[in-house]
Every structure is written in structure tokens, then in C-alpha cells.
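Hello,

I think I submitted the pyridoxal-5'-phosphate job twice by accident. Can you confirm which output corresponds to this input? Input:
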Amino acid sequence: MEHLINNQVKQLEISGIRKFFNMVAGTKDMISFTIGQPDFPTPDHVKEAGKRAIDNNFTSYTHNAGTIELRKAAADFVLDKYKLTYDPENEVIITTGASEAIDITFRTILEEGTEVILPGPIYPGYEPIIRMCGATPVHADTRDNEFRLTASIIKKYITDKTRCIVIPYPSNPTGASLTREEIIDIVDLLKDKEIFILADEIYSELVYDQAHVSIGTFLREKTIVINGLSKSHSMTGWRIGMLFAPQYLAQHILKVHQYNVSCATSISQMAAYEALTAGKDDAVSMKEEYIIRRDYVYNRLCQMGFDIVKPDGAFYFFVKMPSGYTSSFDFAIKLVEQAGVAVVPGSAFSEFGEGYFRLSFAYSMETLSEGLDRMAKFLSK
Ligand SMILES: Cc1ncc(COP(=O)(O)O)c(C=O)c1O
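Support: Only one job matched these inputs. Its output is below.
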């Protein structure tokens, strides 16, 4: 009965990251630079809060939007860090990871025939959902601008069908972020247009040489700010995301969230409360460590002759692959087979990622050093 399965779903492909993992799974003595999550454990005090939630039988449904205490903590967190002002009563939704926040936003605002502008290359979590909504993803090519999305690039892709622009910064996979000036240019372009902005700021606590500026502080009425604890507090498995939107919009997004998951996991919500209050600066020490690793990897890749942009944030390098390979997949497979090093082929991040590879530096210095030694040897052959 496969012919009865929804056509949009049938046409979806499993992500290029997963495809690559499946191919190299089981390779012995492989150093992997593929992972998109911090290598630090969840902070102990946050884990304890999760355990206490179980011991205290905090194991039932909560308010659909999350406990009011957690929503207040989330609102205070983004006010304190990024000057964002959202009412915890009706403008904050705690979601099952940022992934669910992306899903419920698109399902609330998109419909057949609408278009969504996304920078290319891009994290593969948006496009399938846009398509399942019957909308069309339109990639704005950022390759000639060191992967930076600017107002003048966005302008080229706006049509009367544009319903939303996705602005993810710092970016997975490129590490590029936006400066205050770049954001103000985008604000000037969009302020009089009836276009939503999905600002995916999941890496906002990992911005290295500048302050993170949220576009939600300028265009609050049309922006959905998405954040979460996966990256800032090394909590990918706890599945906690945060969605901030003006009330007229949040009230509709909340319905989609309600019929989707009812609420985020109660136990994780307790841990998240601890993370956003007592642990609100937990990311600072991780960030310091990432800066050391980023600078180390940058120097090593430069010595190997790669043409690279130093990432502003997140924990990825997006690097142009050497010549002589038929595709980024071909390069990545040969690197595994001949050097025992795994990176993610750029094609996993839309067609605009072809010709590049993503190297995550969310690994210990020992692992980075060994893997980069192997890579240097492979390239010198
Ligand atoms: C840009 C971006 N947005 C969203 C997500 C999903 O985050 P979560 O684990 O909170 O669902 C990721 C995860 O890698 C990401 O890189």
C-alpha cells in the first residue's frame, strides 16, 4: 500500500548527514569531526534538577506552553542576554527542541503557493518542513559573500509570494553570524514588508568576537525568535527549545504545538529551569574552550593551504574541498577510507554546499590534533 503514502513525504530524502553516517558507520579507528553537538556533558546541577523532577513525581502534563516558571525564566534569559521583551503569559512557548519550534512556526504561517527565503548553504532542518507545507524554499546564495546573508542578497529573492525569511545566525554549517550593522540593513529592507522572519538563534550563546544581536529587538511584530538549550547547555537529548513571538502570532502557533506534542517533557522542563536560572552563564566556560579550539583548527587548516573563513560562532568550519574529487561526497568518503577522518559533505547543506565540507570542532584538543595530523598527511600525498 505504499502508493497511499503522502506524496510530499515520499519525495523527502533522509538527510545527507544521515546518509553519510550510515555509509561510514562501522569504520574502524575513525576520527569523526561530524557531530553537531557539544562534547561537554550537561552541567551536573542541571542533571540533578532533572533527577529531582522524577523523584518529586513531576511527571505529568504541564501547561501546553510549558510551566509558567520556565516561561518566565526563558523570558528573563533572553531579556537579560539579548534585550528581547516577551510576555511569559502569552508570547513564550517551550518546545520539544528548536526542531519542533521550526516545524510549528512553518505550519502556522505557510500555505500552498508561498515562498520561504533561506540562505544557502543551510542546515537541512527547514526545507523538508517547508515542502510538507506545500510552500517553496528559495535559496539565497551566500557563497560569494563569505556565507554572510545581507539585505542586498535577500532583496534579489523577494517576490510577492515571499511569506517568510529564515535568518539562522550564527549559522550551521558556516559559522557566519551577523553584525549589528548587517542586521539594521536587513531591518530597513523588511520593516515595511508583510514578510515573517524566522530567526533561528540556537547558537546565540556561542558567538565569539562580537555581541549577539537579535533581530527580534528591531522587528518584534513580524519575527519568531527560536532558541533552545541543545547547544548552550549541551542538552541535545533533553529536547528543549524556546519560541518567542508576538501574542497575535504565538496564540496560533500554540495550537499547532498543542496538537503536536501537548507539552515539552515535564522532567526536561525542570532541568531547563535550572539551566536558565542558576545555569544562565553555563555556556561561558564552554565558549572559552571553543575559541581555543577554533583558533587552533583555523591555523592548522591554513597551514594545509585551505581557503577558509574563520567562524564567528557555533562550532563549525565550512571549507572548500581540494580539487580532484567528483563531489563533496566523494571527497568525504575518500577521507574516511584513506585517512580515517570523517567530515560532513557540503552537499548535506543544500546544493549550495556542494564543493565544501563541514568540520565540527566540538571535540577535545587531542582528537582535533590527531585528526588534523591525519588530514595533513592525506593531503600531502
Ligand atoms: C541551526 C539549527 N537549528 C536548529 C537545530 C535543532 O536543535 P534542537 O536540537 O534544539 O532541536 C539545530 C541542530 O543542529 C541547528 O543546527
